[in-house]
Specification:
alpha+beta
């Protein structure tokens, strides 16, 4: 930081540094807001492989809709139960992938914040499967 080179000790250099820093912070805040908005609107609908049920979840993995087809009338209740749980599990896996894409597109993948958010989303959506979280067959 030379006295003549516009370093931090130079008032003009310090002001430029602060302007650049504020610009980075403002961009980060806008990107984080965009990510949050997109994740808030994320919905995933998945049907079980036998076409008995379709479920819709949000980005947190919460069930927001469930629709049964007439085919459920021809199968045992335990088959319907497994179909529901299977569809929810698949929807959560898809939601985890889509959430990862949203995070990468909005805040990137290199920052500590991006990695932390991605890990939390993965744990919330995929972790339920790994911990069985009520999704056993």
């Amino acid at each position: 930081m030379a006295a003549d080179g516009g370093g931090l000790l130079d008032p003009e250099g310090a002001q430029a540094y602060l302007r650049d820093w504020k610009g980075r912070i403002d961009r980060m805040a806008a990107d984080t807001k965009a990510m949050s908005d997109r994740l808030e609107q994320l919905r995933v609908t998945t049907e079980d492989r036998n076409g008995l049920v379709a479920v819709t979840i949000d980005s947190t993995g919460a069930l927001v809709d469930i629709r049964f087809t007439e085919r459920i009338q021809r199968v045992a209740p335990d088959v319907v139960s497994r179909a529901v749980m299977s569809a929810i599990r698949e929807a959560r896996l898809t939601a985890a992938e889509r959430s990862r894409q949203v995070i990468a597109e909005t805040i990137g993948t290199e920052s500590v914040a991006a990695r932390t958010i991605t890990e939390r989303v993965e744990r919330q959506l995929r972790g339920r499967e790994e911990n069985n979280g009520g999704l056993g067959d």
